[in-house]
Design a protein that fits this description.
Chain lengths: 110, 114
């Protein structure tokens, strides 16, 4: 069974601080996606990483896919209250399925 | 541009009752999915439909059935609801013929079983 563990599970920080969220597995994934989910809504895709070692930047968010394609990280620089939400990683399992991580709930205090 | 629409948004059932959760997408996507989301467990795949006419089990299919009615619609049925099925249910769709496409999610159905 493929599993994706995210850490930390909860994170509460002050506006302007930096943070990193981790997504780890013992399985290799062909690609990995990061989603953000806000209360009462479904997850929305932030980024897809495909190549081992790949780094993608989305404004203040930096995503990295591990060299062995078993892990990924999301780094947020100078967090803002608008970054508050549940962050989910999802690894591609075959052609049609994704395995979702356990989630990191982030709260950024003004 | 509705995307993925789920009905109902909220539902309370008694143990043993049955119900069907409806999902429709207007993006002409081939693949559709049903997930449940429980605290601390992320999203778990219940069933998916890679294309119209096919359905397959996910991680947690027990107690559920699905129907891919046509390309747009994918329903999830609970035949005899149990308290362990209290959860938030999400439907999603994607254009799976193109690799690494995003899944587009509905806003969920919050289901409580007493």
């Amino acid at each position: 069974t493929q599993l994706l563990e995210q850490s930390p599970q909860f994170l509460s920080i002050q506006e302007g601080e930096n943070l990193t969220v981790y997504c780890n597995s013992s399985s290799v994934f062909s690609s990995l996606q990061w989603y953000r989910q806000e209360p009462g809504e479904g997850p929305v895709l932030l980024v897809t990483v495909v190549t081992g070692g790949e780094v993608k930047k989305l404004k203040r968010l930096t995503f990295q896919f591990g060299d062995a394609r078993k892990d990924s990280s999301l780094h947020i620089t100078a967090a803002q209250p608008g970054d508050t939400g549940l962050y989910l990683c999802a690894g591609a399992s075959g052609t049609y399925k994704y395995i979702f991580g356990t989630g990191t709930r982030l709260k950024v205090l003004a | 541009n509705a995307g993925v629409t789920q009905t109902p948004k909220f539902q309370v059932l008694k143990t043993g009752q049955s119900m069907t959760l409806q999902c429709a997408q207007d993006m002409n996507h081939n693949s559709m999915y049903w997930y449940r989301q429980d605290p601390g467990m992320g999203l778990r795949l219940i069933y998916y439909s890679a294309s119209e006419g096919t359905t397959d089990k996910g991680e947690v299919p027990n107690g559920y059935n699905v129907s891919r009615l046509n390309k747009r619609e994918f329903s999830l049925r609970l035949e005899s609801a149990a308290p362990s099925q209290t959860s938030v249910y999400f439907c999603a769709s994607s254009e799976s013929r193109i690799r690494n496409q995003p899944q587009h999610f509905g806003d969920g159905t919050r289901l409580s079983i007493l």
